[in-house]
Amino acid sequence: MEEAVPVFQRGGSVVCRSTGSGKCTADYQELPLNVTVALNSQGSADGDLYLDDGHSFEYRDRKAFCLRRFNLLSGRLLCRPATGEGRFDCETVVQSVTIMGVKNKPSRVNVHVSGEERGERCFFNHKHMQRSPKQVKPH
After folding, report:
1. Which of 3, 31, 60, 87 is the most buried (most CB within 10 A)?
2. Looking at the predicted structure, is the pLDDT value of residue 130 above 70?
3. What CATH fold (topology level) applies to the domain 13-130?
4. Among candidates 33, 61, 72, 63, which has minimal Cα distance to 49?
């Protein structure tokens, strides 16, 4: 029999999690992220994502890190730099976005990636959104 562990997330927060597991921090660098948004009573949420190489002091000595802020407000989820500091290139991608607390079923969802000419359309399926296999980098 499988055991289930309940996970609670406060309304108004955005939490990013790796999609799998690894033996060391280097393993996590290669895993895609799941972004979980829990809306508050006003329908908004925010949270931060911090990335670095996971093993050196480059974050301190050369500002080799990435700090992103996710904000959901008025039905739009934005991912922007949280600070002007930090430069870190990585291959981390967002695999999925789950939004909890939506009051009405959306008729459509568009994904716009900065620097690309057209957004992608996601299809809403009562329990989750499905999107094309192309994944989105959060930086």
Report:
1. 31
2. no
3. Immunoglobulin-like (2.60.40)
4. 33
